[in-house]
Inverse folding.
């Protein structure tokens, strides 16, 4: 229970940072996707169900606040959380490469599907341009942010896990 | 300890796939419902906004102070050079200013004659501060800290300086979301101030990123529109009040269809450094098509 509340607080904080603070320090016109970092971290450390639930709520929050269409970002984050959750089976405490790699791939998938749905379908076909100027910078920036945030989230996860185990 | 963990995992083993499929269906239904009946979700959206936006307002000041400090370092060099330039400009300007004040008296008189006093400077406006911007980088939406309790409603025009920023697309108690004119989804009906030729100004992410311009379409072939002429919102627009400056037109060329002319437009507003905006609390009276 306490872990769910903590994840929820993390979600709100990430969303606030991403929407209110990050635009002020954006590089190349993009902000890092902190929500995705959180989703992947939860999925990697705790499995499919927590991962996809975090994804669902992260997406719904974004949808309710910024999108016309409810449920689209939720669907994207949900699937990313679910797929990333498979990696929990090979979860390794000191492995930092795998989550980074998943964040990189996850961000690409997210941006790519978003591009297809919102741009390609309106016949904005220059994928190469959008990839180079939006998707790639965002991927790089997100991974950069993840290098700082992931250890933090991971530490919190370890701390909570130890507490829960002690109680049991 | 180990046994416990294993047990928990086995418990979950049955669920994930079904739960996943259930959630996917839920999302698809949500998308469908919100597409067909957008007003159904306005309550939820407003509630979320009401909770989140005060927090954003608080945290926004933190982000602002960070960026201000970074900006200060960057600016010092630029400012010195600029200062020199500006000093020499001031001298130029004071002499022109004198001349212009004289002209202004004349202009005021002429305006009164032509009853052109009702320019958009006379509309009632509410100042608002930007507290959040779109978390996906594909569209130019942002949220400001004034909402329905300050008299703002959907469809109101938004200015910054003297140029058009966009339109209020959604509003809550103490926040409202603004869709800017450079948004890839946005179309504004425009008009050349000199020749009265109408056109459609539409946002374009790629052009905005590359050259800080947006697209102008549907200029008629025989239009006498000239480069650098001012484009304002037109009288036929049903959302935008007439005569608000959008920007300056450039690179006019004939469309490949040979039916119309296209051009690009430099927005009058600097969207990179947008901080405070003015919302005109007056709606364009549109003909109700229903």
């Amino acid at each position: 229970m306490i872990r769910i509340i903590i994840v929820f607080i993390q979600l709100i904080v990430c969303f606030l940072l991403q929407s209110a603070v990050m635009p002020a320090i954006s590089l190349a016109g993009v902000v890092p996707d902190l929500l995705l970092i959180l989703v992947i971290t939860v999925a990697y450390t705790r499995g499919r169900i927590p991962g996809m639930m975090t994804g669902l709520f992260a997406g719904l929050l974004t949808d309710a606040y910024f999108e016309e269409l409810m449920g689209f970002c939720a669907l994207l984050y949900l699937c990313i959380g679910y797929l990333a959750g498979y990696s929990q089976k090979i979860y390794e405490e000191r492995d930092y490469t795998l989550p980074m790699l998943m964040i990189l791939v996850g961000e690409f998938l997210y941006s790519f599907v978003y591009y297809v749905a919102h741009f390609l379908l309106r016949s904005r076909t220059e994928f190469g341009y959008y990839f180079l100027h939006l998707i790639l910078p965002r991927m790089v920036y997100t991974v950069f942010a993840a290098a700082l945030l992931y250890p933090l989230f991971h530490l919190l996860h370890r701390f909570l896990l130890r507490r829960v185990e002690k109680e049991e | 300890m180990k046994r416990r963990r294993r047990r928990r995992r086995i418990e979950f083993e049955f669920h994930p796939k079904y739960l996943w499929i259930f959630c996917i269906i839920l999302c698809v239904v949500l998308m469908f419902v919100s597409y067909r009946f957008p007003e159904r979700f306005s309550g939820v959206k407003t509630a979320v906004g009401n909770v989140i936006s005060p927090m954003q307002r608080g945290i926004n000041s933190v982000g602002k102070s960070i960026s201000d400090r970074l900006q200060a370092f960057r600016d010092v060099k630029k400012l010195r050079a600029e200062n020199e330039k500006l000093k020499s400009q001031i001298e130029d300007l004071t002499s022109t200013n004198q001349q212009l004040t004289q002209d202004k008296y004349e202009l005021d008189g002429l305006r009164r004659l032509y009853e052109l006093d009702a320019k958009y400077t006379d509309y009632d406006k509410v100042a608002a501060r930007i507290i959040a911007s779109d978390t996906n980088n594909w569209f130019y939406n942002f949220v400001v800290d004034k909402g329905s309790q300050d008299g703002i409603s959907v469809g109101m025009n938004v200015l910054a300086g003297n140029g058009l920023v966009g339109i209020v697309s959604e509003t809550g108690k103490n926040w409202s979301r603004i869709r800017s004119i450079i948004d890839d989804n946005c179309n504004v009906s425009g008009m050349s101030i000199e020749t009265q030729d109408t056109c459609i100004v539409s946002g374009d992410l790629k052009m905005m990123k590359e050259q800080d311009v947006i697209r102008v379409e549907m200029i008629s072939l025989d239009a006498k529109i000239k480069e650098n002429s001012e484009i304002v919102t037109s009288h036929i627009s049903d959302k935008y009040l007439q005569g608000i400056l959008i920007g300056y037109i450039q690179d006019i060329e004939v469309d490949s269809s040979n039916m119309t002319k296209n051009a690009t437009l430099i927005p009058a507003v600097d969207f990179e450094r947008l901080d405070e905006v003015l919302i005109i609390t007056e709606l364009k009276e549109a003909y109700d098509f229903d």
